[in-house]
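Supplementary Methods S3. Input chains for the assembly prediction are listed below.
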Amino acid sequence: MAKIIIPTPLRKFTEQTATIDSKSETVQAAIEDLAKLYPGLQQHLFDKEGKIRSFIRIFVGDDDIQALDNEKTAIQEDTVVSIIPAIAGGIS
Amino acid sequence: MNNLEVLIHSDVFLQVKEHLESSFPYEGCGFLFGDNKNARVITKATPALNNKTGDQRRRFEISPLDYMKAERLALEQDLTLLGVYHSHPNHPAIPSEHDRIQAMPFFSYLILSIQEGTFAKATSWRIKEGTQQFEEEKLKIPQLQNH
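Predicted structure tokens for the full assembly:
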């Protein structure tokens, strides 16, 4: 099964589980299934329109899905999907 | 007043301070690691590249690949990734709207005000549970009397 790696700040919503197995076939389905399993993740992963939040990046292996097929990116049995929070900010 | 606290080892704080002073007039940034079992204690910091395209005197951004490396480092060294530090060059150590809207739960956001290249003040902030609002946490630095 594919593995989804949960970033540290979101593990409080997954009972401190760092890695979740997924049978989903696309990134979108995998992330949606994850949010159904752990509803506390919903507001941190999806915006009000149900799209993955702009402050969250999804990587398949070492590749940003924005450089692949976005949320439709296919995942295989040995795929590692990483959820990565945007780390950014600054003055004013 | 909340009872949030974070303790940072003084040698780690000095490392962060020197990094951010040397980054002036640009914003510097990095990761904070440590233990969160009984109390939140920062025992390690690693600098990160400010990857922001545009004015790095007012903005910082850490690349997703650097974030992945930080998570791996935490696993390898049996540490917890506890947060992020960054500087506010010639501005107060108060989180901005840009800081707030992109902040994640759980993380400590350590901000150092750097005035003309010299450290002025440090504060630390955490997102209040169930909100997207910061609340300040008490920053404890042993052996540094001023903070």
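The mean pLDDT of chain B is 93. Residues 5-140 of chain B form a domain with the Cytidine Deaminase; domain 2 fold (CATH 3.40.140.10).
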